[in-house]
Amino acid sequence: MIHIRGGNVYDPANGINGEVRDIWIDGGKIVEAPPVPPGGVDVIEAEGMIVFPGGVDMHTHVAGSKENVGRKLRPEDHREHVRSRSGFLRSGSGYTVPSTFLSGYLYAEMGYTTVMEAASAPLMARHAHEELDDLPMVDKGLLVTMGNNHFIMDCVARGERERLRHYVAWLLEATRGYAVKIVNPGGVENWKWGRNVASLDDGVIGFDGVTPRKILESLAGASRDLGLPHDIHVHGLNLGQPRSAATTRETAAALDGRGSHLCHLQFLSYRGREEGHTFRSGAGPVAEAVRAAKDLTFDVGQVIFGQATTMTSDGPLEFSLHQLTGHKWVNDDVEAESGGGILPVVYDRKSRVGAEQWMTGLELFLLIDDPWRLALTTDHPNGGPFFCYPQVIRLLMDRDYRAEILASLPPKCLEGALLPDLTREYGLYEIAVITRAAPARMLGLRSKGHLGAGADADVAVYDRVNVDGTACRCSRFASCRRALSRVRHLVKGGRWVLRHGRIVEEVQGRTFYVAPGYDPALESGLREYFEQTYTVSFDNYAIVDEEIPGGEVISCGEKKRNGSF
Amino acid sequence: MSERVENVICTFCGCLCDDIIVEHDNGKILKVLRACANGQGHFREYDPSPRSPRLRGKEVSWEEAYAGASAILRESHSPLVYGLSSAVTEAQRRAIEFADRLGAVVDSTSSVCHGPTGLAMQGVGEPTCTLGEVRNRADLLLYWGCNPAASHPRHFARYSTAKGKLTPEGRRDRTMVIVDVRPTAATKAADLFLQVEQGRDFEVLAALRALVKGRPVRGESIGAIPREILISLAGRLKSCRYGVAFMGMGLTMTRGRDLNVAELFSLVSDLNDYTRFSVIPMRGHGNVAGADQVTTWQSGFPFAVSFAQGYPQYGPGEFTAVDFLARGDADAAVIIASDPVAHFPRRAADRLRTIPTIVLDPVESLTAAEATIWMPTGVAGIDTAGSSYRMDGVPLRLRPFFKAARPSDEEVLARLIEEVRR
């Protein structure tokens, strides 16, 4: 049993806002305080410290074929960013694309205990799971890309709604996936012809009558019909382009009422200042549209100034970045399913575009007033490394700090911009919402993101005094914002794995996936489809239980509406 | 009664053909269907017998072998871990952990094969695709410095001349161009064979890049190929629907090495300004692609990694096994599933003969025969489960159909890690 004594607890899912509470842990779960404290209790003295549920990163790229190609592509990224092995802990390297063990340690040190790998082609899911197995300290799951899948687009073309639903269920189980990911629906298939889609009603080459809109609607329907714990997870059209804000407004309108999560919204919220000309933040109109679409949730994908490695299934996007920047470019077309690309970038605060992107993200954070529909992400490593989340938290909590950075941006960017006038500051409670409670709720992970009895015992304890012993210098806030940069104590699954800033135990997390069930009659048709289409036989495609040592099925059922478990 | 197993995966080469049929009885393989000659050998030479490890030529118990290995590793100040390419991913993961905890240099057979391909990719990127896009989409195939007819015999039938979604007529729907320094078994099948003068691939590739971009190229011929033919080839490359280039040792292991490959990768990148084009390196051993993957996800770098300083350092030319051995820097070696004594340049192989070596291999290779300790292990895909990565990065699960009579590489390495941590 573990007793976390006297900390200021922030547990928004249970309405606790900084009150001094004790947390009791037994058998990997949060429990009620025992009437008589038993002997042999490990006590974590948390007086004056901040107690949060373990962090939940709902959209990150930390494992799988794209992430690993990014690592291989960039020795220059790793050279000066290394960690030595120490005791039982493994060594590692990488800044924007850290190696797997290092990534696990960095998440733990930041107080995060659950991460969702946000994209793998089904054919590459086995690879993603093997890396996730080498990502210690956190529980995890995998989103599987389906927005350009030939079988699905055939079903959409023929209007076979039921067959599509069974296939989605089969595919999630075969890949041990957690949810349906859609990336630039139709656009990635068209890229295999050297093209893209620019609007929701553009055609997909080779699939009669199929449009991005129909793919989105069909998969949203299948996902809700199956009762998946997490709605379709959508990377929309025209990402990164000045017309993206307009497309995002249309997409939000099309998906409202169907249930969807729109990811890294920042990258899809730009507009041209004058028709099609320069590049400006479109956070205002996007925030307005998404405020109205009550059934949708979002994560931001904030940009961090400095190096980043873009990696996405959106193949045509990476190619246009290659044409724009000339940087080394990787593309990977995946048979009958998906595609992708990788390209290093730098977000330079002296560049107009970089500055606009940075402002766009913060404007979305500050304009969308319901934190329960918002999650903090950097779309790691696309916007910047995940371990920069504390920097984003500080930007949200401290408008003086924002002003300091704003003053260093190109003055042209500030003309007519919204951000300089946004005075909102997040409090720790809201931070706990967007980094814990809200993402857990969006993912449908009921035992994550809160500290009520029955929750997984993932608890992060932050100290006002920094881990290196220096005093925390903030005085304006009731609680310390800098302290959130590094956890003082971390309990993961009921084990006190990080003490006084040092990892004392390496633990292996679980892998969450869904098994919604499908009609076995589907399989004979699939067998034939595989022979015609794939270079892998049907028998060798699906992942088996032995391959997922920490696998845990999350049950499907009636989808709980936004705002309640 | 013999048993028949379908869709068995052959781990001989990077094609990982997964449609093999094996008939076996009483622990013996009777018949292997669909496999090429290489694959037939892989299955038919399988030795199911339990074997004892050997320590300095004498058969010993496994405990004695571990004790001997432990003594070697404790004495060593600068160990080398090498091989990996025929081991399953699970064993590779253990091998990198082993090297990390030991403070060793770790390198895979990539460094004597497609290592330059990795360097080229790190320099200029790599537009690639899975083999299914070759089957379903590609209407132009460009082979450069490789001979699949010998190295990957089923490549043509399974992927590049197979009937697919946009290629219903198979071979007839495709144009095949082969560039090599000499005619080979594969070149007969080509629509166009260009014989390039040895050592001048880079020039030809550079000329093609210029021609693709519409820049002038001087000279009547480049690398012994008439300019007019290159002009027409550039036009064909630009006007195909979906092109795929394949490349092999003819580019990586001849003068220019990674520069040759980078020039081909750049040509392929450039072609995407006009049409769609991808490149797939023809990887050799069954899971050499997996070795790159695992080494990268655990350390950040694909091969030639030193953990001697406590953290991963990347050093092609420094920590590549041949260089590390030839310089005399290794004072012990753990060789996993490869035969460097047979394949390395003499100076490196000689060094291996003078230092203590621990060899994990199902077969008694030349390296195993001369090893201080030989640990005979199981064969992945026959008696051991695990995953392997195809040359295009597609991961497959190997399903054993025999019960193992020997420990797996993974088990042996796990035990060696225990010995090191003690």
- Named CATH topology of the domain at 2-52 and 449-503 in chain A: Urease, subunit C, domain 1
How far apart are the termini of chain B? Answer: 48 Å
Contiguous runs where pLDDT drops below 50 for at least 5 residues of chain A: 559-565
| DSSP, total strands of chain A | 26
Largest interface: A-B, 64 and 63 residues
How much of the polypeptide of chain B forms β-strand, as a percent range? 15-25%
Give me the side-by-side strand order of the main sheet of chain B.
5-4-20-19-18-6-7-16-17
> What radius of gyration of chain A results from the CA coordinates?
23 Å
CATH class of the largest domain in chain B: Alpha Beta
The shape of chain A is globular
Reported by name, the CATH topology of the largest domain in chain B is Rossmann fold
Q: Name the CATH architecture of the domain at 2-52 and 449-503 in chain A.
A: Roll
From the helix content, strand content and strand pairing of chain A, which structural class follows?
Answer: alpha/beta
Range of helix content of chain B = 25-40%
Largest sheet of chain B: 9 strands, mixed
What is the structural class of chain B? alpha/beta
What would the average pLDDT of chain A be, to the nearest integer? 94
Highest-level CATH class of the domain at 2-52 and 449-503 in chain A: Mainly Beta
What's the oligomerization state?
Answer: heterodimer
CATH architecture of the largest domain in chain B: 3-Layer(aba) Sandwich
Assess the beta-strand content of chain A as a share of residues: 15-25%
Note the main attributes of this structure:
heterodimer, A: 565 residues, alpha/beta, Urease, subunit C, domain 1, ten-stranded parallel beta sheet, nine-stranded mixed beta sheet, 17 helices, 26 strands, 30% helix, globular, disordered C terminus, B: 422 residues, Rossmann fold, Dimethylsulfoxide Reductase, domain 2, 2 domains, five-stranded parallel beta sheet
